[in-house]
Protein 1
Amino acid sequence: MDFIDPHIHIASRTTDDLAVMAKMGCRAVAEPAFWMGYDRSGVNSFHDYFRQLTEWEPRRCANFGIDHYSWMGINAKEAEDVGFSREVIAELPSFLDRPTVLGIGEIGLHKCTRNEVATLELLIDLALSRGEMMVFHTPHLEDKYKGTRMILDLLRGDRRVDPARVCIDHCEEHTIRLALEEGYWAGVTLYPVTKANPRRLVDLVEMVGPDRLLANSSADWGPSDPLAVPEVVASMRRRGHPFSTIHQLVWDNPVAFLGQSAHFHAPI
Amino acid sequence: MSMPSNAVETLNRDWLPLRAALIDLAATLDRIDRAEGSVDEDARWAQIQQSLAVLSAPEANRAEQIQLIFSLPYEPNWRP
């Protein structure tokens, strides 16, 4: 079945991964800017990374018939130095205008510190002042519940926010309803050990329904699976879900969410 | 909500993975017991004990309850 992976870090994956993803039906991916596994030493490192996401990775994916889109931002793990974050944020507008950029992401919280919040407020303001869509990284493990609620508090306080244009990502059993009940899209990350897995995502579909859910691999430089989305397809088939529900989750929903950006064109 | 499953069919499908997960869980706890020293004062051990209690409870939202056991509390007045 054709599918779209709405959150994957292609910059950290091999060309062999792209070949297998294409064979399994991957037609498009969206890659949020994130922490590459090490703290960058200066603004130029971010500049080059943003160029990689907007120039090189689209070409690499195109070799396999996969459309590549990206989100621009500074991740929470490198956002503790607010002065440095301001310098990186100043780089973003010129990249946001590039033809495959969908908006600002993934931004959010990591350890939920005061400085992370300060940087996040700058990013949210930039997004809203330009009418950009947003993807939010919610924290890992014990910080997720608290951090998700703090992000929702920040968004609730700004009248410019349109929840339909925002994805709260990395949702799990204890946070997914928080996002959906306020009208946001909820991303579920299929990341072994520390996040959800295909079976638990299917449980969530059965509990809250498929509307406004996005299934993503978030495959990156850590233990992760670039074929996690087709694994969801297989799990749903095994459990007797109809084609229409599976197709909604892995195709219609990503097209509906990402398609709110004028830069996104659904694969034909 | 979507696709309410038949309980027997679900148990049939998940029987072997569930059995394996429970044995792996038991073996991990045994491994900790066999090791030198004690984890009785470790806050993570208390979380594990709370989670095990949730597993044997009758409610149907065990996964969410266990997620919350492993979560830091949210303070509504977090803004300075």
Note: Chain A has nine helices and eight strands.
Protein 2
Amino acid sequence: MKKVFSMLMTAILVFGALGSTVFADNHSSNEAMVRVLHASPDAPAVDVYVDGNAVVEGAEFKASTDYLKLPAGDHNVEIYAAGTKGEQDPVISKSLTVEAGMAYTVAAINMLENIELKVIQDSMSVTEGKTKVRVGHLSPNAPTVDVGMIDGDAVFSGASFPMVTDYKELDPMTYDLEIRTSDGTQVKDLSGTMLEKNTVYSVFAVGTAENLEVLMLKDYTLMPDSMPQTGMGGTAQDSSSLLPIALSVVLFGAGAMIFYRRRTQEQ
Amino acid sequence: MKQLLLACSLLFLAACQEQPLVSTQAQGSSEKVLSQKEPSAIKEETTPTSGEESFSIQQQGIVPKRIEIPAINVDAKITSERLTEKNEMEVPSNAEQVGWFEPGTKPGNSGNAILAGHVDDKNGPAVFFDLKDLSAGDQIYVTDEDGKKLTFEVNKVVAYPKDDAPLREIFGPSNNQNLNLLTCTGTFDHSIQDHEERLVVYTSLVNS
């Protein structure tokens, strides 16, 4: 009897172990999202390598990639003038540590002779019905600025190179914004800035003070936790899972066990 | 009695032997690319956006009301769908209409706009039944209520296990003006009343 019992137990254990791998959550939970931004006004077009693999080629000033997946942990980021890997040293070589489930903007900033990598963590959430925005001052020689409504209050104050402000949640609409110095002198007209609901933005001021430009990137948009269920099986060939069968076997086996043990005890 | 127990254990072993098959299937059924543009074309698609028009990006978006896909004879109405309290995307309750994920991006704006439709209902094929037959280069037309029409072109067609689709890649932000079409595919599992895979048709706006 003991032998049969232990066989049964083994079977349950084996089944359990296999079962857990089958039904495990396979989400790519150990990955981070990283995008690269070229914000060095006088640097040439560049190739970006992560751990020796090209992720962007020929990216010019103001170019940005979409988010790329990277395993969590340490990575070596190297930036070369386009087409010079193997011939010249990288313009930048830096270690980058990313955490699972986080999103980052990795920006090459400052003038070429002082070029550096700035790593910024990006938001991945927004209150439904709201919009969220922040401002990055990536113009090496531009003064400290505010960003605010034209003829109105400042939304972000005292941003200086190479600072990135915290996010602010706002009502989604079209805003007439401007970049201005603290004495109110307009540096850049941003009227007609449309901020969509459920969207997170980074607005980066790039270039030199003489030729200031603005890049607006989307960091996040509201998304569901799962893929929608878009079928009811009307055209499916029959296939039933093994789970119900296996479960009924377990229950039946357990029942039989109890029944058998009782009988043995009664004897 | 012993015989009964033995029968039990045998049944068990049989179930166990089946198990690895299931697990292999689970591993084997990861991302399947059904169609994809030539690498050179892809390269063009993913080239980083040059900053030229970056500031006035996303202003072309429309509220989609109708979708036409001539390659698979689809001409359907589009409804606006929301997020449920469980943070799931609602889909039209009928088999004929296509749902636009309204909390997300409008088609034509930079980002990934989403349209989802049923592959089948309880009785037979539904609006996106033939979606799997699309291939790179096929065109999709989306129209708003004023008749403004945007044209998108298929970049690639990929099937993912239903719980392992790259949600951020599909729904998340992008510099490109993308429209992704979703439906179910793969075997229908009666025990969970769901298909085992999800089909994603990735498309991008064609500049007219």
Note: Chain A touches chain B through 81 residues (CB under 8 Å).
